[in-house]
Design brief:
Shape: elongated
Distance between the termini: 73 Å
Strand content: 5-15%
Number of helices: 20
Bound molecules: glutamic acid
Radius of gyration: 31 Å
Length: 466
Amino acid sequence: MSIRVRFAPSPTGYLHVGGARTALFNWLLAKKTGGTFVLRIEDTDRERSSDAHTKVILDGLTWLGLDWNEGPFFQGAYGDRHRADAERLLANGNAYRCFCSAEELEAQRKALPKGAAFKYDGRCGRLSAEESTRRIAAGSPSVIRFRVPTGEIAWDDAVHGRISFQGHDLDDFIILRSDGSAIYNMAVVSDDIAMQITHVIRGDDHVSNTPKQIALYRALGAGEPVFAHVPMILGADGKKLSKRHGATAVGDYQDMGILPVAMRNFLALLGWSPGDDLEILSEEEMVRRFSLEGIQSKPAVFDTAKLEWMNGQYLSALSASELREPVRRQLDRTGATVAPARLDSLIDAVKARSRTVIQLADQVAVRAEASRITEDDRATALRQKMGDSFNTSLRLAHAALAGIPEGEWTADRLVETLKTTATEKGVKLGDLMQPVRVALTGSTVSEPVNELLVAVGREESLKRLS
Ligand code: GLU
């Protein structure tokens, strides 16, 4: 049987990195096995769900390149089927009508000894059929509760191994509200059965729902899927990743200048290991190596520095033409003007030294427009340390470089000229080069100075030196 997986986000917020990783693992399993990746938007919480959130989620998945094969389906459209499944459980004795009002439940709760957890005592489950019918006829509002079987409910989780619950520890939970709408566990099971889902891969915050869902599958006479509960993502301090740690939305990373390929590679390694130390994986490699068994059961730590490092690796490895579009977008955002004819060579000049598209675009802009230069602290410190010799170096460099005609303004010729000047004037090469770098970029860090001079161009370089 072919594998069918689903990603089932609730459109009540942005696409969290944890959600994106869940989607990625589903996508990888579908890709690997030639299966089907279903996208289902769980929009049954009408107050908190919105079209805007749905759009953000779809955009995030698209940005990451996680294409789905079926959907998006909207859970809200299947209310009739959810209700029919709940009524089927009522008809086969696995569920019952409960007439307890909110006030009665509150009174039951209050009657408990202090500190005891409330568990519905199942009293309406003991009503006779006649009594139940009489109350319905009298117009008493009711919900439908699932009659949780006693005994063990266990499954072999693909990530955690055997997980076991006792039925008598769970209460007879509501599956259908008095207004006829289904509760989460009922809706999910109804949909997963109808959509023939074979593997449920989701965050392990859902582990406590799984015994309830398994009991529902069994009561509906349906085969259970494989469950794989993916461990949480923690911040660097070991606490569950949250806004306190900084960005948690996929869109934030896009805005920070992270490339989608880098983000996807990084997310894949959050909790999954390809089996060795390999860190940079192409899509093919990731798909080839992926398995549910490779997902670790201990929580993963979100390391932003590693994400930036990985992004830097992709920036160096990708060609200028592949980077052109994101860089152009960032340049437009900051209002920098860079002639299209120069863009690729400027990207090539700086991509190996950038960790984000933002840094890359800033460096491109600095080389194209003098007004984009801002002097950094190390450059200021160098200028102060060198004192008069800083300006002397700039004068020497200017005089020597001005003698090179436009047609000979090449990296080889430039380095040769600078070296000769340093030797002839008795200046250390570094003391000649660093001031040039600062004058051209405002920074002590850049590509080799001769390449920098080529990137900035003859006329503009001489202007900056003077
Ligand atoms: N809609 C649920 C959520 O966003 C996921 C349900 C599931 O994966 O079973 O947490």
